[in-house]
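Structure request: Glycosyltransferase, Arachis hypogaea.
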Amino acid sequence: MMTNSRGDENKHVAVFAFPFGSHLEPLLNLVIKLAHAAPNCSFSFIGTHKSNEILFSNPNNNIPDNIKAYSISDGIPEGHILGSHPVEKIDLFLKTGPHNLQQGIDLAVADTKQRVTCIISNAFVPDSLIVAQNLHVPWIPVWLAMSCTLSSHFYTHAIRDHCANATVGETISLGNFLPGLSMVRVEDLPQDVIDGGENETLFSKTLASLGSMLPQAKAVIMNFFEELDPPLFVQDMRSKLQSLLYLAPLLASSPSSAEEDATGCLSWLDKQGARSVVYVSFGTVVAPPPHELMAVAEALEESGFPFLWSLKDNVKSVLPNGFIERTSMRGKIVPWVPQTEVLAHSSVGVFVTHCGCNSVIQSICNGVPMICRPFFGDQGITGRMVQDAWEIGVLVEGRVITKNRLVKSMNLILVDKEGNKIRENAIKVKKIVEVAAKPDGKAAQDFNTLVEIIST
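Returned structure:
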């Protein structure tokens, strides 16, 4: 029999995942943390069959008994062949709408015999608000991109109007639109924010709607440290939202000891000098174009620095002939690395990165300076924050890697006197987040507030 009384019932929290890329594990890690903090609550984790299989088949995740997974449609029609555009499968999933999400709720309720009392959702699945409203329960979206990038989605229409009326070649300042983010430039913004009209994807329309939807949330969760966000940005967001909670970053779980060094990365790093290694990784979603991969290889070879490069086997063919052999004594190229452990290693001196949120957070937490080559989405704003707000790295000139540009950036951070400030700032920021993440820190207080919301 389903529990109906509202006063003393066990709470049942439904969690909607955005089943793509690096958004999965941070959300599951939050739910695992909540499940331990609120053992009397049941958590129904709702994703697609594929995304749930990725998460719940991973033995490292140590799923508590009060979390169960339920699968809903990914929206891909039977027999449909996906194109190369990464947004296509996102749009297909979003098109399934509230009805698909409700089916996940129905599965969970039928199985647990408990009505849902709260909904936590990735903010990229805003139709979950409609489901929450229909059920008359609190809605708590989680913003898993870099926190400050949320601002652009509150001011999308103003930004588009200003860009449309700007003259050709005009330098467009965003200081009047994005409080606390005066360093951000138009070229840093996601293209979806700038472009509207008939070419707008469903995903970009979804992002543009966040400014009107998030104020209806019981609380909005940030996957970052409040101490590192510009105070004016935080103040602006608090003025728009019912509640804004900053949790210490919800990073991916570490691999087991048996697999963490399957490629020999860590034992190789053990043999390198302190802060001497260039670590290169551009994430798993988008690979740089061949000419940039070629330039990375040429820069690594010319620089003379030891390097660790996470590079899929199927793209090695674009590297210069003989590069791997010529650099084998000081370089290591592997298809996968345990990034958390790599960035924590004392030999790593700089991280050449695409500025994915998780990668930047891991680098910050370990005091590793960055060389940023953003590709899409929130990565441009994140790279700008790395260079101009926190001053813990540099953006690649022109946002296109060439041999000379990358060599210059590596020399700046690893050896040049001018790079002292960047290296010092990286350590300073690391210490700030260490204090913030302590048991009596702001993140712990905000987490306790979240536990109270879902438990009452």
